[in-house]
Protein backbone atom coordinates (compact mmCIF):
# COMPACT_ATOMS: atom_id res chain seq x y z
CA UNK A 1 0.00 0.00 0.00
CA UNK A 2 2.74 2.47 0.96
CA UNK A 3 4.76 1.53 -2.14
CA UNK A 4 1.77 2.36 -4.34
CA UNK A 5 1.44 5.80 -2.74
CA UNK A 6 5.17 6.50 -3.20
CA UNK A 7 5.02 5.46 -6.87
CA UNK A 8 1.92 7.61 -7.41
CA UNK A 9 3.56 10.64 -5.78
CA UNK A 10 6.74 10.06 -7.78
CA UNK A 11 4.80 9.92 -11.06
CA UNK A 12 2.89 13.11 -10.22
CA UNK A 13 6.13 14.87 -9.31
CA UNK A 14 7.78 13.76 -12.55
CA UNK A 15 4.80 14.94 -14.59
CA UNK A 16 4.70 18.26 -12.73
CA UNK A 17 8.43 18.74 -13.27
CA UNK A 18 8.03 18.10 -16.99
CA UNK A 19 5.10 20.52 -17.30
CA UNK A 20 7.01 23.29 -15.53
CA UNK A 21 10.11 22.51 -17.61
CA UNK A 22 8.10 23.01 -20.83
CA UNK A 23 6.75 26.30 -19.43
CA UNK A 24 10.35 27.36 -18.74
CA UNK A 25 11.35 26.45 -22.32
CA UNK A 26 8.59 28.69 -23.69
CA UNK A 27 9.49 31.55 -21.33
CA UNK A 28 13.16 31.22 -22.30
CA UNK A 29 12.40 31.13 -26.03
CA UNK A 30 10.16 34.20 -25.62
CA UNK A 31 12.85 36.04 -23.69
CA UNK A 32 15.52 35.21 -26.24
CA UNK A 33 13.16 36.17 -29.07
CA UNK A 34 12.42 39.54 -27.48
CA UNK A 35 16.12 40.17 -26.98
CA UNK A 36 16.81 39.13 -30.59
CA UNK A 37 14.15 41.48 -31.97
CA UNK A 38 15.31 44.37 -29.81
CA UNK A 39 19.07 44.00 -29.64
CA UNK A 40 20.01 42.20 -32.87
CA UNK A 41 17.32 43.32 -35.32
CA UNK A 42 17.08 46.75 -33.63
CA UNK A 43 13.28 46.77 -33.86
CA UNK A 44 11.66 49.57 -31.87
CA UNK A 45 10.10 48.58 -28.57
CA UNK A 46 6.84 50.23 -27.49
CA UNK A 47 5.67 50.74 -23.90
CA UNK A 48 3.33 47.73 -23.89
CA UNK A 49 6.16 45.51 -25.18
CA UNK A 50 8.30 46.67 -22.25
CA UNK A 51 5.52 45.81 -19.80
CA UNK A 52 5.22 42.34 -21.33
CA UNK A 53 8.99 41.90 -21.03
CA UNK A 54 8.76 42.90 -17.37
CA UNK A 55 6.48 39.92 -16.77
CA UNK A 56 8.10 37.41 -19.17
CA UNK A 57 11.80 37.83 -18.33
CA UNK A 58 11.44 36.88 -14.63
CA UNK A 59 9.59 33.71 -15.66
CA UNK A 60 12.74 32.56 -17.48
CA UNK A 61 14.60 32.89 -14.14
CA UNK A 62 11.96 31.84 -11.58
CA UNK A 63 10.75 28.65 -13.28
CA UNK A 64 14.16 26.86 -13.31
CA UNK A 65 14.62 27.77 -9.64
CA UNK A 66 11.57 25.63 -8.93
CA UNK A 67 12.94 22.75 -10.99
CA UNK A 68 16.25 22.18 -9.16
CA UNK A 69 15.23 20.92 -6.62
CA UNK A 70 11.66 20.52 -7.68
CA UNK A 71 9.23 22.64 -5.70
CA UNK A 72 5.50 22.93 -6.42
CA UNK A 73 5.53 26.41 -4.85
CA UNK A 74 7.11 27.83 -8.00
CA UNK A 75 3.61 27.85 -9.46
CA UNK A 76 2.49 30.24 -6.72
CA UNK A 77 5.19 32.74 -7.70
CA UNK A 78 5.12 32.40 -11.47
CA UNK A 79 1.39 32.15 -12.24
CA UNK A 80 0.55 35.75 -11.19
CA UNK A 81 3.37 37.05 -13.39
CA UNK A 82 2.12 35.02 -16.34
CA UNK A 83 -1.50 36.11 -15.87
CA UNK A 84 -0.69 39.83 -15.60
CA UNK A 85 1.69 39.62 -18.57
CA UNK A 86 -0.97 37.74 -20.52
CA UNK A 87 -3.53 40.45 -19.80
CA UNK A 88 -1.12 43.11 -21.05
CA UNK A 89 -0.46 41.01 -24.15
CA UNK A 90 -4.19 40.61 -24.85
CA UNK A 91 -4.71 44.36 -24.42
CA UNK A 92 -1.82 45.00 -26.84
CA UNK A 93 -3.19 42.52 -29.38
CA UNK A 94 -6.66 44.11 -29.21
CA UNK A 95 -5.07 47.54 -29.71
CA UNK A 96 -3.13 46.32 -32.76
CA UNK A 97 -6.26 44.63 -34.16
CA UNK A 98 -8.20 47.88 -33.83
CA UNK A 99 -10.72 46.50 -31.33
CA UNK A 100 -9.59 49.03 -28.72
CA UNK A 101 -9.66 52.61 -30.03
CA UNK A 102 -6.31 54.36 -30.36
CA UNK A 103 -7.52 57.05 -27.95
CA UNK A 104 -7.00 54.52 -25.15
CA UNK A 105 -3.41 53.78 -26.18
CA UNK A 106 -0.81 54.06 -23.45
CA UNK A 107 2.00 54.93 -25.89
CA UNK A 108 1.84 58.69 -26.08
CA UNK A 109 5.56 59.14 -26.77
CA UNK A 110 8.04 57.16 -28.82
CA UNK A 111 6.98 54.08 -30.77
CA UNK A 112 3.19 53.75 -31.15
CA UNK A 113 1.82 50.54 -29.62
CA UNK A 114 -0.53 50.02 -32.54
CA UNK A 115 2.34 49.91 -35.06
CA UNK A 116 3.02 46.50 -36.62
CA UNK A 117 6.76 46.02 -37.15
CA UNK A 118 6.71 42.33 -38.10
CA UNK A 119 3.94 40.31 -39.70
CA UNK A 120 4.55 36.69 -40.67
CA UNK A 121 2.11 34.63 -42.75
CA UNK A 122 -0.17 37.66 -42.97
CA UNK A 123 -1.37 37.48 -39.37
CA UNK A 124 1.41 36.55 -36.92
CA UNK A 125 2.62 39.70 -35.15
CA UNK A 126 4.84 40.16 -32.11
CA UNK A 127 1.87 40.96 -29.80
CA UNK A 128 0.09 37.80 -31.03
CA UNK A 129 3.24 35.76 -30.35
CA UNK A 130 3.23 37.20 -26.84
CA UNK A 131 -0.43 36.28 -26.33
CA UNK A 132 0.29 32.73 -27.49
CA UNK A 133 3.37 32.36 -25.25
CA UNK A 134 1.63 33.70 -22.14
CA UNK A 135 -1.46 31.56 -22.84
CA UNK A 136 0.58 28.37 -23.14
CA UNK A 137 2.56 29.18 -19.99
CA UNK A 138 -0.64 29.94 -18.02
CA UNK A 139 -2.24 26.71 -19.24
CA UNK A 140 0.81 24.65 -18.31
CA UNK A 141 1.05 26.23 -14.86
CA UNK A 142 -2.64 25.60 -14.20
CA UNK A 143 -2.19 21.97 -15.30
CA UNK A 144 0.79 21.64 -12.93
CA UNK A 145 -1.24 23.23 -10.13
CA UNK A 146 -4.09 20.78 -10.67
CA UNK A 147 -1.57 17.91 -10.58
CA UNK A 148 -0.12 19.20 -7.33
CA UNK A 149 -3.51 19.45 -5.64
CA UNK A 150 -4.34 15.76 -6.14
Automatic annotation (TrEMBL):
SUPFAM superfamilies from the UniProt entry: DsbB-like
Gene Ontology process terms (BP): protein folding
Electron transport listed as a keyword: yes
InterPro entries: DiS_bond_form_DsbB/BdbC, Disulphide_bond_form_BdbC, DsbB-like_sf
Gene Ontology terms for molecular function: protein-disulfide reductase activity
GO cellular component: a single term: membrane
Membrane topology: Multi-pass membrane protein
UniProt subcellular location: Membrane
Transmembrane helix is among the record's keywords: yes
Keywords assigned by UniProt, alphabetized: Chaperone, Disulfide bond, Electron transport, Membrane, Oxidoreductase, Redox-active center, Transmembrane, Transmembrane helix, Transport
Pfam family of the protein (one): DsbB
TM region positions: 16-38, 50-70, 77-100, 120-146
Family under the similarity heading: Belongs to the DsbB family. BdbC subfamily.
Name the record gives this protein: Disulfide bond formation protein B
Source species of the chain: Azospira restricta
